[in-house]
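Sharing in case it's useful to others searching the archive later.

Someone asked me privately for the predicted structure of Glycosyl hydrolase family 76, so I'm posting the question and my answer publicly. Question first, with the sequence:
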Amino acid sequence: MPPTPLPRPTPPYPRSLRRRLSAAFAALITMSALLALGLTDSSTAHATTAPATVAPAANATICNKYCDGRDPALSGGDRQPVTASIFSRSIVLHFDDADAMAWASIDNGNPGDEVWIDRSFDGGRTWGSGSKLGDTTTPTGQRGWRTLMQNVDDWNNDGVGAVRACGKAGDRPDIACTAWARTTWNAWSRSTAAATALMMSFDRGTGLFGGNGWWTAANALTAIIDNARTSGMPSYEYAISSTYDKNINAQEGNFENNYLDDTGWWGLAWVDAYDITGDSRYLNTARADADHMQAYWNGTCGGGVVWNETSTYKNAITNELFLYLNAALHNRISGDTAYLNRAKAEWSWFQSSGMINSSHMINDGLNDSCANNGQPTWTYNQGVVLAGLTELSKATGDQSLLTTARTLADASTVNLSSNGVLREPGEGDSCTGDGPSFKGAYVRGLGHLNAQLSDHPYSSVLTTWANSAYAHDRNALDQYGPHWAGGAGSSDYGCQQSALDLLNAAG
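And my answer, the predicted structure tokens:
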């Protein structure tokens, strides 16, 4: 059974604060990630000392179209995205994008200089201990040399790879490596490149992203499915069945657990999985998830689903997910009335609950007196409701629901922007925990609404945000950080999922 998520404290603290890293730990992660991944660096790196952790698979000889060890003279192309330097030597990473292979070179040096390639299957976080693929030295009488070509990916084992070029002067111990990079294989657009980068965090052992992520893994899988739908790239659809088969009996079974919002995220992921595969087992699991949530609807504060099986707290995200999931199920089940009635009841209660404030923004939930608790207006609380109202409008034909959604979207696109770019309230520099996934859920919902409205009023803002993230928040591996307007930060699958959701929505 895969690892279960860490226990979470009870409210009234909002989710992102309950799971937020301490400032010191976040700073440590940011520092190490910047050094290893070069998120805010240029394409040129300098001498670094980063210890490798053991990952033998990255060492093994790989055969895709060609096997490791192919002569670079046979390459049909030579793209050079990143370089490094040490003691006047130039170290360059070369790509043959057509064959998805790479080689390294060292120049402007002396005989005996050494050059090699490191290969990683988790985005540069680990690589083979002592791998030094293609390790070679500059021959006598030469000032430079190159390795043989190595495969970047492992197609036979669904391994999404990254490589870097490393080298050293023959008479010194210091080593320099380029930033990690990869070929343009499965990366012909901004969104497919981001999807490929996200798949570097897919743990083939657990079938989850980041090893043991739970609700965040549901969002990452949803982003991958949405990318397959919008881009037409089916390469990573294997993650759907892998996630399902490895986790169907985890937690309480059927992707249910004691956090009802977690169950809602998974239910929606399986709706998306059903849409792209047509496999009824995914739809049946989504139905089981909705039924599980329904069991925790009660009369406290007049209705709504509780956040946790043992809690009385009524929060926005759980109930928005309940609205969205039930409306989506109705739209896919012929003759249904039960899921439609649940969705209608949810919206009737939610809109009068007090969680929507006078600025048309949605706070985190209700206090013990059943009044708005005034907690921050997290982005995902503004976004999931948009998708839910869009689905409910499709189900009922009620256009006033789209009018309401538009009012909410108009408010959030303005109130949550800083210098014209979306920013999470209290946005930090870390990409771990819950908060980094929030913006993705927001733009996904905004994108659903935008696609349904005939004038597509949010296309411009989605494009602006996507352009900013692409220009200011991306490294050579097409990994994204937490700040779409730019700035120091780490990189991990939570931020990557949000960026992919943005690029999917922007088109």
